Amino acid sequence: MKQRVPVSQIMAKVLIAVPSTKKISEVNQLFADYNIRHIPVVESEKLIGIISVNDILKIGYSNADMDKDALNDIYDAYKLEDIMTKNPLVVTEDTIIKEVAELFSKQRFHSLPITDKAGKLVGIVTTTDLINYLIAQY
């Protein structure tokens, strides 16, 4: 296996990011449209949080048998800032993949936003990205 490979080699560089003012129903639709599970939340290109499919499921789970419009009304009773993870752990684009794997193995999350040295959001890496990288090594 290759040693000291930076996470920039496996991170998603084309990002879907949303402002904190975005409606939860709209964020939920982005998850469906792009088949993704994590979206960074930004204000003026600065990362302020991250939202996951699971965060949204938690507020609508008991009402999952409702029609889409009624469920969207429940989602939109919340603000994105109420359910997102604020100030998430981030890594820089030169963090090595092994360190990212260690973070995933010790934490309860499945994605990490990636910033450049100036702190600008430049990517995201998920456990799926990591698994695909490991599979490609064999």
From TrEMBL:
<dbReference type="InterPro" id="IPR000644">
    <property type="entry name" value="CBS_dom"/>
</dbReference>
<feature type="domain" description="CBS">
    <location>
        <begin position="11"/>
        <end position="66"/>
    </location>
</feature>
<feature type="domain" description="CBS">
    <location>
        <begin position="84"/>
        <end position="138"/>
    </location>
</feature>
<dbReference type="InterPro" id="IPR046342">
    <property type="entry name" value="CBS_dom_sf"/>
</dbReference>
<dbReference type="InterPro" id="IPR051257">
    <property type="entry name" value="Diverse_CBS-Domain"/>
</dbReference>
<dbReference type="Pfam" id="PF00571">
    <property type="entry name" value="CBS"/>
</dbReference>
<protein>
    <submittedName>
        <fullName>CBS domain-containing protein</fullName>
    </submittedName>
</protein>
<keyword id="KW-0129">CBS domain</keyword>
